[in-house]
Amino acid sequence: MASVAGALRRWALRRARSGATRSNLPWSFLSTSTTGAGNDAVSEQIGQGASGGEKAKTSAGSIPPPIRVSLTDSAGRGVFASRAIGAGDLIHTASQPVVAHPLPSLLSKVCYYCLRRSSGDTAVLSDSSCSSSRYFCSDECKEKSKGFLEIESTSSWSAYDTHCKERGLKYPFLVKRLACMVVAGTVSADTLDILQPASLHPDMLPEMEAEYELLKLAFVEADLEEALISFLTKQWFLGVMARIRINAFRVETVGGSYEDLLDLASSSVVADSAVGNAVYILPSFYNHDCDPNAHILWIDNMDAKLKALRDIEPGEELRICYIDASMDREARQSLLYHGFGFQCRCSRCLSGD
Ligand SMILES: [Zn+2]
Ligand SMILES: [Zn+2]
Protein backbone atom coordinates (compact mmCIF):
# COMPACT_ATOMS: atom_id res chain seq x y z
CA MET A 1 0.00 0.00 0.00
CA ALA A 2 2.53 2.54 -1.18
CA SER A 3 0.01 5.36 -1.59
CA VAL A 4 -1.31 4.92 1.92
CA ALA A 5 2.24 4.84 3.22
CA GLY A 6 2.94 8.09 1.39
CA ALA A 7 -0.10 9.74 2.85
CA LEU A 8 0.90 8.65 6.30
CA ARG A 9 4.45 9.81 5.91
CA ARG A 10 2.95 13.20 5.19
CA TRP A 11 1.25 13.31 8.52
CA ALA A 12 3.34 10.90 10.51
CA LEU A 13 1.95 10.45 13.95
CA ARG A 14 4.10 10.52 17.00
CA ARG A 15 1.68 8.97 19.30
CA ALA A 16 1.37 5.84 21.23
CA ARG A 17 -1.28 3.87 22.97
CA SER A 18 -1.28 0.49 24.49
CA GLY A 19 -3.58 -2.04 22.95
CA ALA A 20 -2.41 -4.74 25.28
CA THR A 21 -4.18 -4.57 28.61
CA ARG A 22 -7.52 -2.93 28.74
CA SER A 23 -9.41 -5.47 30.73
CA ASN A 24 -9.12 -3.32 33.84
CA LEU A 25 -11.22 -0.61 32.27
CA PRO A 26 -15.02 -0.44 32.18
CA TRP A 27 -15.22 -0.07 28.41
CA SER A 28 -18.30 -2.22 28.19
CA PHE A 29 -20.56 0.66 29.12
CA LEU A 30 -19.57 2.43 25.94
CA SER A 31 -21.69 0.11 23.88
CA THR A 32 -24.18 -1.24 26.36
CA SER A 33 -25.28 1.69 28.48
CA THR A 34 -26.70 5.06 27.67
CA THR A 35 -25.73 6.63 30.95
CA GLY A 36 -22.52 7.26 32.83
CA ALA A 37 -19.93 10.00 32.61
CA GLY A 38 -17.72 8.14 30.21
CA ASN A 39 -20.47 7.49 27.75
CA ASP A 40 -21.55 11.11 27.95
CA ALA A 41 -18.04 12.17 27.11
CA VAL A 42 -18.03 9.92 24.07
CA SER A 43 -21.47 11.07 22.96
CA GLU A 44 -20.39 14.64 23.39
CA GLN A 45 -17.32 14.06 21.25
CA ILE A 46 -19.34 12.30 18.59
CA GLY A 47 -21.83 15.17 18.70
CA GLN A 48 -19.05 17.65 18.13
CA GLY A 49 -18.11 15.78 15.03
CA ALA A 50 -21.45 16.66 13.51
CA SER A 51 -21.67 20.24 14.63
CA GLY A 52 -18.15 21.52 15.19
CA GLY A 53 -15.93 22.96 12.51
CA GLU A 54 -16.19 21.79 8.94
CA LYS A 55 -19.25 19.71 8.11
CA ALA A 56 -18.56 16.16 7.17
CA LYS A 57 -19.83 15.00 3.80
CA THR A 58 -21.28 12.01 5.54
CA SER A 59 -22.63 13.90 8.49
CA ALA A 60 -24.04 17.14 7.15
CA GLY A 61 -26.64 18.98 9.18
CA SER A 62 -27.77 17.28 12.34
CA ILE A 63 -27.01 13.71 11.24
CA PRO A 64 -24.48 12.22 13.67
CA PRO A 65 -21.17 11.01 12.26
CA PRO A 66 -21.13 7.42 10.96
CA ILE A 67 -19.37 5.89 13.95
CA ARG A 68 -19.96 4.11 17.22
CA VAL A 69 -17.54 3.18 20.00
CA SER A 70 -17.77 -0.40 21.20
CA LEU A 71 -15.73 -3.36 22.30
CA THR A 72 -13.47 -5.19 19.87
CA ASP A 73 -12.69 -8.91 19.98
CA SER A 74 -9.15 -8.36 21.21
CA ALA A 75 -8.12 -4.77 21.79
CA GLY A 76 -10.66 -3.37 24.26
CA ARG A 77 -12.75 -0.63 22.73
CA GLY A 78 -12.59 0.59 19.17
CA VAL A 79 -14.38 2.84 16.72
CA PHE A 80 -16.68 1.21 14.18
CA ALA A 81 -18.49 2.44 11.08
CA SER A 82 -22.22 2.64 11.77
CA ARG A 83 -22.93 3.05 8.06
CA ALA A 84 -20.98 2.96 4.80
CA ILE A 85 -18.22 5.55 4.48
CA GLY A 86 -16.67 6.49 1.14
CA ALA A 87 -12.95 6.79 0.44
CA GLY A 88 -11.77 10.32 1.18
CA ASP A 89 -14.82 11.19 3.28
CA LEU A 90 -14.43 13.23 6.43
CA ILE A 91 -15.65 10.83 9.12
CA HIS A 92 -15.86 13.40 11.87
CA THR A 93 -14.13 16.39 13.38
CA ALA A 94 -12.95 16.37 16.99
CA SER A 95 -12.86 20.09 17.51
CA GLN A 96 -12.40 20.18 21.23
CA PRO A 97 -9.40 18.42 22.75
CA VAL A 98 -9.52 18.02 26.51
CA VAL A 99 -6.22 19.82 26.68
CA ALA A 100 -3.79 21.25 24.14
CA HIS A 101 -0.57 23.23 24.28
CA PRO A 102 1.72 24.72 21.64
CA LEU A 103 5.31 23.51 21.45
CA PRO A 104 7.19 25.51 24.11
CA SER A 105 9.52 26.90 21.42
CA LEU A 106 6.59 28.29 19.39
CA LEU A 107 4.71 30.37 21.97
CA SER A 108 5.09 33.58 19.98
CA LYS A 109 4.12 31.92 16.68
CA VAL A 110 1.32 29.48 17.49
CA CYS A 111 -2.01 30.39 19.09
CA TYR A 112 -1.84 29.63 22.79
CA TYR A 113 -5.38 28.29 22.62
CA CYS A 114 -6.15 26.71 19.23
CA LEU A 115 -2.62 25.99 17.89
CA ARG A 116 -3.15 28.03 14.73
CA ARG A 117 0.09 29.30 13.27
CA SER A 118 0.58 33.06 13.06
CA SER A 119 0.41 34.09 9.43
CA GLY A 120 2.89 36.82 10.22
CA ASP A 121 0.89 39.62 8.63
CA THR A 122 -1.86 39.87 11.21
CA ALA A 123 -1.71 41.75 14.47
CA VAL A 124 -0.35 39.59 17.24
CA LEU A 125 -2.62 39.61 20.23
CA SER A 126 0.07 38.89 22.71
CA ASP A 127 -0.75 38.71 26.34
CA SER A 128 1.13 41.50 28.06
CA SER A 129 0.16 40.43 31.56
CA CYS A 130 2.89 37.82 31.68
CA SER A 131 6.60 37.87 31.12
CA SER A 132 6.73 35.53 28.13
CA SER A 133 4.80 36.69 25.09
CA ARG A 134 2.04 34.44 23.92
CA TYR A 135 0.27 34.61 20.62
CA PHE A 136 -3.50 34.45 20.24
CA CYS A 137 -4.96 34.20 16.75
CA SER A 138 -8.21 35.90 17.71
CA ASP A 139 -10.08 37.62 20.50
CA GLU A 140 -12.24 34.51 20.66
CA CYS A 141 -9.25 32.32 21.50
CA LYS A 142 -8.10 34.83 24.06
CA GLU A 143 -11.56 34.82 25.61
CA LYS A 144 -11.67 31.03 25.73
CA SER A 145 -8.27 30.99 27.45
CA LYS A 146 -9.41 33.33 30.20
CA GLY A 147 -10.07 30.65 32.81
CA PHE A 148 -6.77 28.82 32.76
CA LEU A 149 -4.80 31.95 31.89
CA GLU A 150 -6.03 33.74 34.99
CA ILE A 151 -4.77 30.88 37.14
CA GLU A 152 -1.55 30.51 35.16
CA SER A 153 -0.83 34.21 35.59
CA THR A 154 -1.05 34.02 39.37
CA SER A 155 1.94 31.68 39.56
CA SER A 156 5.59 31.90 38.65
CA TRP A 157 6.39 29.17 36.16
CA SER A 158 10.02 29.95 35.45
CA ALA A 159 11.42 27.01 37.45
CA TYR A 160 8.94 24.51 35.99
CA ASP A 161 9.19 25.80 32.43
CA THR A 162 12.98 25.97 32.49
CA HIS A 163 13.23 22.48 33.94
CA CYS A 164 11.02 21.07 31.19
CA LYS A 165 12.51 23.07 28.32
CA GLU A 166 16.06 22.09 29.26
CA ARG A 167 15.05 18.46 29.05
CA GLY A 168 13.05 18.88 25.88
CA LEU A 169 9.86 17.79 27.66
CA LYS A 170 6.51 18.69 26.09
CA TYR A 171 3.95 16.70 28.05
CA PRO A 172 4.46 18.53 31.37
CA PHE A 173 3.15 21.64 29.60
CA LEU A 174 -0.09 19.77 28.94
CA VAL A 175 -0.26 18.79 32.62
CA LYS A 176 0.35 22.40 33.66
CA ARG A 177 -2.44 23.58 31.32
CA LEU A 178 -4.78 20.88 32.62
CA ALA A 179 -3.98 21.71 36.24
CA CYS A 180 -4.75 25.39 35.60
CA MET A 181 -8.03 24.39 33.94
CA VAL A 182 -8.96 22.25 36.94
CA VAL A 183 -8.16 25.07 39.37
CA ALA A 184 -10.19 27.44 37.18
CA GLY A 185 -13.08 24.99 37.32
CA THR A 186 -13.35 24.50 33.55
CA VAL A 187 -12.65 20.75 33.69
CA SER A 188 -12.76 18.17 36.45
CA ALA A 189 -9.57 16.64 37.82
CA ASP A 190 -10.57 13.16 36.63
CA THR A 191 -11.38 14.18 33.08
CA LEU A 192 -8.66 11.97 31.51
CA ASP A 193 -9.46 8.90 33.63
CA ILE A 194 -11.48 7.36 30.78
CA LEU A 195 -8.29 6.98 28.72
CA GLN A 196 -5.93 4.03 28.81
CA PRO A 197 -2.83 4.81 30.94
CA ALA A 198 0.71 3.84 29.94
CA SER A 199 2.54 1.63 32.38
CA LEU A 200 5.27 3.87 33.75
CA HIS A 201 8.71 2.33 34.03
CA PRO A 202 10.22 2.75 37.51
CA ASP A 203 13.18 4.54 35.88
CA MET A 204 10.84 7.33 34.81
CA LEU A 205 9.51 8.02 38.29
CA PRO A 206 12.30 10.17 39.79
CA GLU A 207 12.11 12.56 36.83
CA MET A 208 8.31 12.77 36.99
CA GLU A 209 8.40 13.26 40.74
CA ALA A 210 10.76 16.20 40.23
CA GLU A 211 8.33 17.69 37.71
CA TYR A 212 5.46 17.15 40.13
CA GLU A 213 7.29 18.94 42.95
CA LEU A 214 7.95 21.96 40.71
CA LEU A 215 4.34 22.07 39.54
CA LYS A 216 3.04 21.82 43.07
CA LEU A 217 5.47 24.52 44.21
CA ALA A 218 4.23 26.95 41.56
CA PHE A 219 0.66 26.54 42.79
CA VAL A 220 1.56 26.65 46.48
CA GLU A 221 3.54 29.85 45.99
CA ALA A 222 0.60 31.39 44.15
CA ASP A 223 -1.23 31.38 47.47
CA LEU A 224 -4.35 29.80 46.06
CA GLU A 225 -6.99 28.45 48.38
CA GLU A 226 -5.95 25.07 49.73
CA ALA A 227 -9.20 23.46 48.57
CA LEU A 228 -8.61 24.54 44.98
CA ILE A 229 -5.38 22.58 44.69
CA SER A 230 -6.26 19.60 46.86
CA PHE A 231 -6.52 17.44 43.71
CA LEU A 232 -2.86 18.08 42.98
CA THR A 233 -1.36 14.94 44.48
CA LYS A 234 1.60 13.00 43.15
CA GLN A 235 -0.81 10.22 42.26
CA TRP A 236 -2.89 12.64 40.15
CA PHE A 237 0.21 13.92 38.36
CA LEU A 238 1.50 10.44 37.56
CA GLY A 239 -1.94 9.27 36.45
CA VAL A 240 -2.30 12.22 34.08
CA MET A 241 1.23 11.79 32.72
CA ALA A 242 0.62 8.08 32.17
CA ARG A 243 -2.45 8.90 30.06
CA ILE A 244 -0.89 11.79 28.19
CA ARG A 245 2.14 9.70 27.27
CA ILE A 246 0.13 7.30 25.14
CA ASN A 247 -2.87 9.40 24.17
CA ALA A 248 -1.37 12.78 23.26
CA PHE A 249 -1.31 13.50 19.55
CA ARG A 250 1.46 15.50 18.07
CA VAL A 251 -0.50 18.11 16.12
CA GLU A 252 0.94 18.82 12.69
CA THR A 253 -1.08 21.27 10.66
CA VAL A 254 -1.02 20.83 6.90
CA GLY A 255 -2.67 24.08 5.77
CA GLY A 256 -5.01 24.37 2.81
CA SER A 257 -8.57 23.09 2.83
CA TYR A 258 -10.16 19.72 3.26
CA GLU A 259 -10.61 19.45 -0.51
CA ASP A 260 -6.85 19.83 -0.95
CA LEU A 261 -6.07 16.95 1.33
CA LEU A 262 -6.00 14.15 -1.18
CA ASP A 263 -3.60 16.20 -3.28
CA LEU A 264 -1.54 17.02 -0.23
CA ALA A 265 -1.22 13.36 0.53
CA SER A 266 1.02 12.85 -2.44
CA SER A 267 2.92 16.13 -2.28
CA SER A 268 6.31 16.63 -0.70
CA VAL A 269 6.64 16.53 3.05
CA VAL A 270 7.26 19.64 5.10
CA ALA A 271 10.14 18.72 7.38
CA ASP A 272 8.46 19.60 10.64
CA SER A 273 5.08 21.23 10.76
CA ALA A 274 4.35 20.29 14.37
CA VAL A 275 2.66 23.09 16.28
CA GLY A 276 1.86 21.42 19.57
CA ASN A 277 0.34 18.50 21.42
CA ALA A 278 -3.25 17.72 22.29
CA VAL A 279 -5.27 15.03 24.06
CA TYR A 280 -8.70 14.08 22.70
CA ILE A 281 -11.18 11.52 23.95
CA LEU A 282 -12.84 10.04 20.87
CA PRO A 283 -9.76 10.00 18.59
CA SER A 284 -7.98 8.08 21.36
CA PHE A 285 -10.47 5.24 20.90
CA TYR A 286 -9.20 4.46 17.40
CA ASN A 287 -7.06 1.33 17.39
CA HIS A 288 -3.91 0.91 15.35
CA ASP A 289 -3.36 -0.79 12.01
CA CYS A 290 -0.20 -0.71 9.86
CA ASP A 291 -2.49 -0.62 6.82
CA PRO A 292 -5.14 1.74 8.21
CA ASN A 293 -8.51 2.61 6.68
CA ALA A 294 -8.65 6.01 8.41
CA HIS A 295 -6.30 8.83 9.16
CA ILE A 296 -6.20 11.76 11.57
CA LEU A 297 -5.01 15.15 10.41
CA TRP A 298 -5.14 18.81 11.23
CA ILE A 299 -5.66 21.56 8.69
CA ASP A 300 -4.89 24.84 10.41
CA ASN A 301 -5.61 24.42 14.11
CA MET A 302 -6.33 21.84 16.82
CA ASP A 303 -9.56 20.62 15.16
CA ALA A 304 -8.70 17.00 14.44
CA LYS A 305 -10.20 15.55 11.23
CA LEU A 306 -10.70 11.82 10.85
CA LYS A 307 -10.65 10.88 7.19
CA ALA A 308 -11.48 7.61 5.44
CA LEU A 309 -8.59 6.35 3.33
CA ARG A 310 -10.77 3.86 1.47
CA ASP A 311 -14.36 2.66 1.22
CA ILE A 312 -15.50 1.32 4.57
CA GLU A 313 -18.37 -1.10 5.10
CA PRO A 314 -20.95 -0.68 7.86
CA GLY A 315 -19.70 -2.51 10.98
CA GLU A 316 -16.05 -2.38 9.91
CA GLU A 317 -13.62 -1.17 12.55
CA LEU A 318 -11.97 2.17 11.78
CA ARG A 319 -8.27 2.14 12.48
CA ILE A 320 -5.50 4.70 12.17
CA CYS A 321 -1.74 4.16 12.05
CA TYR A 322 0.06 5.42 15.15
CA ILE A 323 3.43 5.49 13.42
CA ASP A 324 5.03 6.07 10.04
CA ALA A 325 3.46 3.27 7.99
CA SER A 326 6.28 3.39 5.43
CA MET A 327 8.65 1.70 7.87
CA ASP A 328 9.41 -1.97 7.35
CA ARG A 329 7.76 -4.66 9.44
CA GLU A 330 10.62 -5.11 11.89
CA ALA A 331 10.88 -1.37 12.58
CA ARG A 332 7.10 -1.06 13.01
CA GLN A 333 6.94 -4.03 15.36
CA SER A 334 9.78 -2.68 17.46
CA LEU A 335 8.40 0.86 17.67
CA LEU A 336 4.88 -0.28 18.49
CA TYR A 337 6.12 -2.66 21.15
CA HIS A 338 8.65 -0.41 22.86
CA GLY A 339 6.93 2.93 22.37
CA PHE A 340 3.32 1.89 22.43
CA GLY A 341 3.27 -1.22 24.55
CA PHE A 342 1.71 -3.81 22.24
CA GLN A 343 2.67 -6.36 19.65
CA CYS A 344 0.97 -5.52 16.36
CA ARG A 345 -0.96 -8.41 14.86
CA CYS A 346 -2.61 -6.49 12.05
CA SER A 347 -3.09 -8.32 8.76
CA ARG A 348 -0.20 -6.45 7.16
CA CYS A 349 2.18 -7.53 9.92
CA LEU A 350 0.86 -11.09 9.83
CA SER A 351 1.41 -11.22 6.07
CA GLY A 352 5.09 -10.35 6.65
CA ASP A 353 4.88 -7.06 4.72
ZN1 LIG B 1 -6.53 30.61 18.13
ZN1 LIG C 1 0.89 -4.07 12.07
UniProtKB/TrEMBL annotation:
Q: Kindly list the GO CC terms recorded for this protein.
A: nucleus
How is this protein named in the record?
Answer: SET domain-containing protein
Domain (SET) ranges: 65-323
What residue intervals traverse the membrane?
Answer: none
Q: Which InterPro entries has this protein been placed in?
A: H3K4_H4K5_MeTrfase, SET_dom, SET_dom_sf
Tell me the PROSITE patterns matching this sequence: SET (PS50280)
Which stretches of sequence are listed as region Disordered? 35-67
Name the PANTHER family for this protein: HISTONE-LYSINE N-METHYLTRANSFERASE ATXR4, HISTONE-LYSINE N-METHYLTRANSFERASE SMYD
Superkingdom, natural source = Eukaryota
